[in-house]
Amino acid sequence: QQPVQSPQAVILREGEDAVINCSSSKALYSVHWYRQKHGEAPVFLMILLKGGEQKGHDKISASFNEKKQQSSLYLTASQLSYSGTYFCGTVNAGGTSYGKLTFGQGTILTVHP
Amino acid sequence: GAVVSQHPSWVICKSGTSVKIECRSLDFQATTMFWYRQFPKQSLMLMATSNEGSKATYEQGVEKDKFLINHASLTLSTLTVTSAHPEDSSFYICSASFWGTGELFFGEGSRLTVL
């Protein structure tokens, strides 16, 4: 079953912050985050493997609450280059196919000058 | 980082013809590759899991006789859309999982337009 992302769309001005949430109805092994620009393939942002794990680089970070089966992506001091569609991809706990991701419906992020 | 290359990046064909898309892992061995399909403004939907040396595993609702997948080597998987029809027009993306980090690397994608 597809994880649910919220919000569906976000509009920001440069320098503003945003949070994108990803929620699953199933127990998760890992959560992956990707950003996709129009007409291009998704680009890997980060993977979270353990419950409670938090990761980040530059001004993009993420957390994974295993108990709640949720993950959040945090974008701080947004830049124009952050614009795109953000997807979370989940791997269910106990899955037999390593790397088999189920993607959320995506969150469209638009950053204006 | 690991690179996955996909070819062709776009293809236009007539209805009824077959189209082959190649996916190569350039600097690592990928025993498993995945094929996704993405319609405009929609999410990526997994079509099948491609396993080197064995038959692909298709997701529910994906016609295995229409979307032929061959994973003949550790670096190459191919998707053949047989007897393509306009409704098969889509963005097809392959990916390979890098065992070391768990990252899923995507190819550049192939945009198929069936006239």
How would you concisely characterize the structure shown here?
Chain A is an all-beta fold and 113 residues long. Chain A has strands at 4-6, 9-13, 18-23, 28-36, 43-48, 54-57, 60-65, 70-75, 84-92, 102-103, 107-112.
Output mean pLDDT of chain A: 89
Rg for CA atoms of chain B? 13 Å
Q: For the CA atoms, what is the radius of gyration of chain A?
A: 13 Å
Based on DSSP secondary structure assignment, what is the total number of beta strands of chain A? Answer: 11
Give the class of chain A from helix and strand content and strand pairing.
mainly beta
Q: What's the mean pLDDT score of chain B?
A: 90
Largest sheet of chain B: 7 strands, mixed
Decide which structural class fits the backbone of chain B: mainly beta
H/E series of chain B: EEEEEEEEEEE
Number of helices of chain A: 0
N- to C-terminal distance of chain B: 37 Å
What is the H/E order of chain A?
Answer: EEEEEEEEEEE
Share of helical residues of chain B: under 10%
Gap between N and C termini of chain A = 37 Å
The unreliable regions of chain A are none
Fraction in beta strands of chain A: over 45%
Query: What is the general shape of chain A?
Result: globular
Give a short account of the largest sheet of chain A: 6 strands, mixed
